């Protein structure tokens, strides 16, 4: 028999993701309309897929440079400059990673000493706190609220800082709330970060999916370039989740340290995916624009429909999630999601899996065809008529 | 003609689904239903929206007998009216689905539909090539439609994603 003591205490003590648990529930049912998916419903554009096929045909099957194909890093550098007005040198400030996930992992493992704290803003992506823990750090969670549109306030940030705080992990536009921080809000947060000499880890994976306001990178705020680590990638904006390709941009000293870790742990990101990403950046921006338009329509549609049926929902500025409140039904978010799944076969994700402040909400992804959304909303409206008040 | 962002957005949506519910269309574009009605009416009146169409893959229907041909036409342009005059004479035939003025090896591209190859052939030989300014015609019959007006025939994209994911 395998002894559980073979597993490290850190890992043994990690909670499995609540999303995983809910996935198992939904996977066993048939005829489910899913709003539970955290990825684009678009298939990667054909030109990008074709570039990967071509890369295989040409026989590009070996490792690339540790930091990624130079050509790709140069293109990422141009992209970051053009799109977000932040200058990063392809030589020593950009590392191509296996998804934004690996970018987050090497970032945290590079900067953290045992016991140092990272401020994590909830509700948030399920991997943040566990990644901090696995890197030997301590996640300090801050709960945002619907009253503030789920935005971290300067007061909250200030209050969470201790002498052990090393960094603040921010995600905008956010998964699961869709909340996007505007330039002024970033400036106010930046002032506190500078005052306490902290780093910012800015997860900008949804940067291309901003609908109402121009997206501002944290690194573009005055004085933040030298203390921000930008996490980005191709999963969401370019509809390339399965390719596992992301990147991280950081000040040179940090980036060089991060490269050591990346080199020993991963060698490099997959070669054909890098060739595909190169095509995506060079010729794919129109596709990104078309997808963004399409999400925006569906955002308008789903948010309006939720509010009409009594699911109180703030207007999310970006990403592809709506995060309506289900409080007035008197159910917990887990109860609501389970009932909705079993009674109406609609899958949504209970908000509490994204942190305590997600309780009372459900995450609904609108990265689904209009037909699917219409069907899901019809079923949810029926559900609300039965359980609404 | 200058259109605003909402009007453009309406066009982009209904170009792919003209049957969409007015109410849903209004929600998607963040307009009031009444305003949406006015917008549509305006676009129709200006003939920006010309017609609401359905794309049918007739090749799937056994009862359907029909052929489509693309015909390259060389013409001598007329003084004063250039190609417009002959184009107009051609597009008025009910068999003619489209007429384009082209650059390159020939002048007009004419798409003709008929019930049989014979019907198209006699249209070309009796009506089209006998027009005064027509110098020559080259007829290409379409054998199979793979993609038409941006729509791939015979393709059902199923959702390959797992039901719940991060
Ligand atoms: C906020 C956030 N960061 C990172 C990721 C992971 O992205 P990738 O597929 O690039 O690893 C996700 C995926 O859901 C996400 O929502």
Tell me what you see in this structure.
Chain B: InterPro entries: Dimeric_a/b-barrel, HTH-Siroheme_Decarb, Tscrpt_reg_AsnC-like, Tscrpt_reg_AsnC/Lrp_C, WH_DNA-bd_sf. Chain B: This is AsnC family transcriptional regulator. The complex is a heterodimer of chains A (389) and B (166). In chain A, strand 5, helix 8 and strand 6 form a beta-alpha-beta unit. In chain A, helix 3 packs across helix 10 and helix 4 packs parallel to helix 10. The radius of gyration of chain A is 21 Å and the shape is globular. Chain A is built from 13 helices and twelve strands. Chain A has two domains: 138 residues, Aspartate Aminotransferase, domain 1 (Alpha-Beta Complex); 239 residues, 3-Layer(aba) Sandwich (Aspartate Aminotransferase, domain 2). Chain A has a seven-stranded mixed β-sheet, with helices on both faces. In chain A, strands 9-12-11 form a three-stranded antiparallel β-sheet. Chain A has a two-stranded parallel ribbon with strand order 1-10. Chain A is α/β, with parallel strands linked by helices. In chain A, 42% of the residues lie in helices and 13% in strands. The mean pLDDT of chain A is 96. By secondary structure, chain B is an alpha+beta fold. Chain B has two domains: 41 residues, Arc Repressor Mutant, subunit A (Orthogonal Bundle); 84 residues, Alpha-Beta Plaits (2-Layer Sandwich). Helices cover 32% and strands 20% of the residues of chain B. Chain B is built from five helices and six strands; from the N terminus they run H-H-H-E-H-E-E-H-E-E-E. In chain B, the strands form two sheets. Chain B has a four-stranded antiparallel β-sheet. In chain B, strand 5 and strand 6 form a beta hairpin. In chain B, helix 2 crosses helix 3. The longest helix of chain B has 13 residues. The mean pLDDT of chain B is 92. Classes of the chains: A alpha/beta (389), B alpha+beta (166). The interface between A and B is medium-sized, with 31 and 19 residues. The site of pyridoxal-5'-phosphate has 13 residues of chain A, from helix 5.
């Amino acid at each position: 028999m395998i002894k559980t003591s073979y597993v490290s205490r850190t890992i043994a003590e990690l909670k499995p993701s609540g999303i995983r648990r809910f996935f198992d529930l939904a996977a066993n049912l048939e005829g489910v309309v899913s709003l539970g998916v955290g990825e684009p419903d678009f298939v990667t554009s054909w030109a990008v897929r074709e570039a990967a096929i071509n890369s295989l045909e040409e026989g590009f099957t070996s490792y690339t440079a540790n930091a990624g194909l130079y050509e790709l890093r140069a293109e990422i550098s141009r992209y970051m400059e053009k799109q977000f007005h932040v200058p990063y040198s392809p030589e020593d400030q950009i590392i191509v990673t296996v998804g934004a996930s690996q970018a987050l992992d090497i970032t945290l493992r590079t900067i953290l000493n045992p016991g140092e704290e990272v401020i994590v803003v909830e509700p948030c992506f399920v991997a943040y706190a566990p990644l901090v823990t696995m890197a030997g750090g301590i996640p300090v969670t801050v709960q945002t609220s619907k009253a503030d549109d789920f935005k971290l306030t300067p007061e909250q940030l200030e209050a969470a800082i201790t002498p052990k705080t090393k960094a603040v992990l921010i995600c905008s536009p956010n998964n699961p709330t869709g909340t996007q921080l505007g330039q002024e809000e970033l400036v106010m947060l930046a002032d506190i970060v500078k005052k306490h000499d902290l780093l910012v880890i800015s997860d900008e994976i949804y940067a291309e999916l901003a609908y109402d306001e121009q997206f501002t990178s944290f690194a573009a705020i005055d004085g933040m370039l030298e203390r921000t680590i930008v996490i980005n990638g191709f999963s969401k904006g370019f509809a390339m989740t399965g390719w596992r390709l992301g990147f991280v941009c950081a000040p040179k000293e940090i980036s060089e340290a991060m490269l050591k870790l990346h080199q020993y742990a991963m060698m490099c990101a997959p070669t054909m995916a890098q060739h595909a990403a190169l095509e995506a950046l060079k010729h794919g921006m129109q596709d990104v624009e078309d997808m963004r338009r399409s999400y925006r329509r569906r955002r308008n549609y789903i948010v309006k429909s939720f509010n009409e049926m009594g699911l109180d929902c703030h207007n999310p500025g970006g990403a592809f999630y709506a995060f309506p409140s289900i409080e007035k039904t008197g159910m917990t978010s887990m109860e609501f999601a389970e009932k909705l799944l079993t009674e109406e076969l609609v899958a949504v994700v209970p908000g509490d899996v994204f942190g305590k402040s997600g309780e009372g909400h459900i995450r609904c992804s609108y990265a689904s065809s209009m037909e699917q959304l219409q069907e899901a909303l019809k079923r949810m409206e029926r559900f609300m008529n039965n359980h609404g008040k | 003609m200058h259109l605003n962002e909402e009007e453009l957005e309406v066009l982009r949506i209904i170009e792919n689904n003209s049957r969409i519910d007015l109410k849903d269309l209004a929600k998607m574009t963040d307009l009031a239903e009444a305003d949406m009605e006015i917008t549509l009416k305006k676009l129709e009146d200006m003939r920006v929206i010309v017609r609401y169409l359905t794309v049918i893959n007739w090749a799937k229907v056994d009862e359907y007998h029909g052929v489509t041909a693309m015909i390259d036409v060389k013409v001598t342009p007329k003084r004063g009216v250039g190609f417009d005059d002959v184009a107009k004479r051609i597009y008025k035939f009910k068999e003619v689905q489209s007429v384009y003025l082209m650059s390159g090896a020939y002048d007009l591209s004419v798409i003709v539909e008929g019930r049989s190859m014979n019907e198209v052939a006699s249209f070309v030989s009796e009506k089209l090539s006998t027009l005064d300014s027509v110098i020559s015609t080259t007829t290409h019959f379409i054998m199979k439609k793979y993609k038409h007006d941006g729509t791939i025939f015979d393709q059902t994209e199923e959702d390959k994603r797992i039901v719940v994911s991060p």
